[in-house]
């Protein structure tokens, strides 16, 4: 039985992970569940799965959480408690489904403890890709991607590592604004931007999908996961979200992974890896009904942040850290009604242009740069709102 720690268990990936494990209880034991504020759902999950450890980000909710529990686990809270909860979990696999750069430190801690990592927190590699991958290699830790695109490419490359690779291709739905006239982008509301056509996701990732920053972050993530230069990582728009990723080899052949728009598939693959899941978690595609598959290049005038992220993927250093941190602040400001949708790009580009990149191989430096970028973004937004 594999012991699993789930960070972000009350988010969309975390809830789906619990659903998958619920159907395979003989194979998995959850030892840690975590949330930032949703203590009621965390209590429900805890009472069902009985992990030894729980984490609640907001300390003021710890007592409320205790009052809903039917047993006595260790409860950790606050920024310092996240890493401590991982240390105490006794897990063999960390499933990191946190949102944002907060996922970096617990991932590094898991690797130090020789835990394998199922990674749904792309920011871990965007911010600390060099640190994470080098440490994982030294500790012989497996990092399995949970993002549907990277999981698909992971499968495409498995068994084909000796074949000369031309490029990998990440697919993107295009998000909810794909057909919206460009002159209406200034007036896009949070409700519009959150209305994703094919995937059910959290608010932050949904906005990133609308700007296509999500795909930009995935380029940087793929660069570290597959040890490829940014020039070998392409993005195509695929509105149907059926083909999740492709690998093109130098002989002209392309291997792809197709599947339903369900995160259950990459989750169950990552939970069982390197073994194989005994059954499909969702209904399979019915190819006999026919598939309409469209692919076309993204318009960088419509999605300028994709171009910005591509630049960050080539420059590396601490540029991706600034890209990610400023974007997190800008997205939240847009959701809070403080800036326009089109201002997200201005915040990010302003932070990058004001930053002098340095090497990204020291965690202290990364945390300092992350803090600087957040402060810059907040001040930029405050000034713009006057």
**CATH architectural type of the largest domain:** 3-Layer(aba) Sandwich
CATH superfamily of the largest domain: NAD(P)-binding Rossmann-like Domain
Helical segment count: 15
* Average pLDDT: 94
3D shape: globular
Class from helix and strand fractions: alpha/beta
> The CATH topology of the largest domain is what?
Rossmann fold
Low-confidence region ranges: none
Helix-strand topology string: EHEHEHEHEHEHEHEHHHEEEHHHHH
Highest CATH level, the class of the largest domain = Alpha Beta
Give the domain tally: 3
The amount of helix comes to 40-55%
What percentage of the residues does DSSP assign to strands (E)?
15-25%
Query: How far apart lie the N and C ends?
Result: 57 Å
Output the radius of gyration. Answer: 20 Å
Number of strands: 11
Strand sequence of the main sheet, in spatial order?
A: 4-3-2-1-5-6-7
Describe the protein's architecture and organization.
Helix content is 45%, strand content 15%. It has 386 residues and is of the alpha/beta class. It folds into three domains: 2-145, Rossmann fold (3-Layer(aba) Sandwich), CATH 3.40.50; 147-261 and 286-306, no CATH class; 317-386, RNA polymerase sigma factor, region 2, helix turn helix motif (Rna Polymerase Sigma Factor, Chain: A), CATH 1.10.1740.10. The strands form two sheets. The chain has a seven-stranded parallel beta sheet with strand order 4-3-2-1-5-6-7, sandwiched between helices. Strands 9-8-10-11 form a four-stranded mixed beta sheet, with helices on one face. The longest helix has 22 residues, at 363-384. It is globular and about 55 Å long.
